[in-house]
Amino acid sequence: MTWSNSAKLYEEACRWIPGGVNSPVRSGRAVGMHPIFIREASGCRITDEDGNQYIDYVASWGPLIAGHAHPAVVEAVRKAVMKGTSYGIPTSIEIELARKVAEMVPSIQLVRMVNSGTEATMSALRLARAYTGRRKIVKFNGCYHGHADSLLVQAGSGLATFGIPGSPGVPEEIVRHTHSMPYNDLDQVEGFMRAHGEEVAAVIVEPVAANMGVVLPKPGFLQGLRTVCDECGALLIFDEVITGFRLAQGGAQELLGVTPDLTCLGKIIGGGLPVGAYGGRAEIMEKMAPAGDVYQAGTLSGNPLAMNAGMATLELLQNVDVYSILDEKTAYLAKGLSEAAALAGVPLQTNRIGSLACGFFAIEPVTDFSSAMKADTQAYAVFFREMLKRGVYLAPSQFEAYFLGLAHEKADMDHTVNAAMEAFRCVRDMTMSSG
Ligand code: KE4
After folding, report:
1. What is the mean pLDDT of the chain?
2. 145 lines ligand 1 (CB under 6 A)
3. Is 117 in the pocket of ligand 1 (CB under 6 A)?
4. Are 174 and 277 found together in one domain?
5. How far apart are CA 192 and CA 171, in angstroms?
6. Which of 139, 151, 239, 241 to mutate to test the pocket of ligand 1 (most atoms within 8 A of CB)?
7. What backbone torsions phi and psi does residue 403 show, to the nearest 5 degrees?
8. Ligand 1 closest atom vs CA 158
9. Which of 282, 317, 352 is the last residue in one of the domains?
10. Confidence at 217, pLDDT banded by 50, 70, 90
């Protein structure tokens, strides 16, 4: 397998784009190679500019749960684009998608469309601060909520990948009111809230953390956050940009039975086009301009192409069997990978829930950011490259997830496990040779 065309494209990309990519975690730096450049995709497969084809477990970092170029999504966008791309004037499809979201996520009575997950969380925090009149926010180490200044504290995803806890350019006075603590450590949250709860506008959490790899909430953790927010008058915000519509029709809040005050959405809601959203109870959301006086806006918010792509995608998830099918597929893959690692004698901690999974090259179970950061990222880099050679595309970072979708078939997963058997042996040989 050669990547000469991708290599040439990467060199040219670096001439015009910082680091050659439009989002850092795509860069491949964490896995010791330049990124591949994609020419086209269909179903669960992507084809790069050298003609190499891969089974794709990134799925554009989650949106493509129905698979690439799904005919229903393509047709919805094609019909919409024939009538124009954007108007900056209300359209009926915005009402239809808002209604669909509210039907699928009962805690959402009103919802505002934006253009990214970052915009969704940034806006939800502004709303929470306005609604409560308080400044402090609580987040969790290793959770990633996009790149808004006040959330770039002990964040996951690309920051975990490159080992940077925050970012230059974010003034201390901006992050002074952001308090990040260990995920799953309810005692520490309760202690902080006993001391400062009256100053806390919101606790924002990924109900299933998927930006430090996949880390599940311990039993009682989310309910504990709900209780402590109720006691202190703070809002509980679920960042369901990844988990929304992925873990259940109503997201993690349906699957895990804890109801937030505000929900942030993204990825799947746009079906691969740029969409984010935030929503919740009407008495909170009505603070947003022009109904209220909390300002947030966006030129392309609710644009018809993205709305139609999102609607077509959500309609593909209406079949109640979808989530048990995705759960079974992902369980099958996770079991195969675990067995392959054991056969090769490679320590692997596999965390999985629904169609989200992650294999940590770690000896101890991974239950939070500090245990995730003990993973052997060099071993992961070898695994990534060996899997790529065998036609399987994984996230180019240990601290991301496998995103399974409706297009992944048993044959794809069998191919993946067979490739992993060889790739794990390469990891073992590398580990042994490096002593
Ligand atoms: P965007 O602004 O990238 O659309 O969404 C930010 C965001 C917010 N909340 C959660 C839980 C998220 O996972 C994300 C973005 N996810 C990463 C992948 N883990 C996006 C990939 C990238 O940054 O290129």
Report:
1. 97
2. yes
3. yes
4. yes
5. 23
6. 241
7. -110, 105
8. 23
9. 317
10. very high
Do 165 and 238 reside in the same domain of the chain?
yes
Give pLDDT tens digits for 74-97: 999 999 999 999 999 999 999 999
Within 10 A of 416 (CB to CB), how many other CB atoms are there? 23
User: What separation in Å is there between the alpha carbon of 145 and the centre of ligand 1?
Assistant: 7
**191 and 243: one domain?**
yes
Q: How far apart are CA 232 and CA 220, in angstroms?
A: 18
Query: Is 185 known to be catalytic?
Result: no
Tell me, using a 6 A CB cutoff, whether residue 240 lines ligand 1. Answer: no
For residues 166 and 207, state if they share a domain: yes
Residues 246 and 116 in one domain: yes
Residues in a beta bridge with 271? 273
* Ligand 1 pocket residue status of 241, Cβ below 6 Å: yes
- Total domains in the chain come to 2
- Catalytic one of 48, 56, 239, 412: 239
In angstroms, rounded to a whole number, what is the distance separating the alpha carbons of residues 421 and 419?
5
CATH number of the domain residue 135 falls in: 3.40.640.10
Residue bearing tokens 């400062």:
196
pTM flag (> 0.90): yes
Known catalytic residue at 335: no
The active-site residue, picked from 57, 144, 323, 402, is 144
With 0-12 / 13-18 / 19 or more C-beta atoms within 10 angstroms meaning exposed / middle / buried, residue 381 is: buried
Whole-number percent of the chain with pLDDT over 70: 100
Mutation test residue for ligand 1: of 157, 206, 212, 237, the one with most atoms within 8 Å of CB: 157
| Residue 144 annotated among the catalytic residues of the structure | yes
Q: What would the mean pLDDT of 358-372 be, rounded to a whole number?
A: 97
Residues 249 and 331 in one domain: no
C-alpha 337 to ligand 1 mean position (Å): 26
Nearest C-alpha to atom 20 of ligand 1 is from which residue?
A: 61
Give the gyration radius of the chain's Cα atoms: 21
Q: Which residues contact 297 (CB under 8 A, 6 or more apart)?
A: 289
pLDDT tens digits for range 288-313: 999 999 999 999 999 999 999 999 99
Ligand 1 near 244 CB (within 6 A): no
**Same structural domain for residues 42 and 100?**
no
Give the span between the Cα atoms of 269 and 313, in whole angstroms: 7
Is the pLDDT at 70 greater than 90? The verdict is yes
Span 260-299, pLDDT tens digits: 999 999 999 999 999 999 999 999 999 999 999 999 999 9
Q: What's the CATH number where 346 sits?
A: 3.90.1150.10
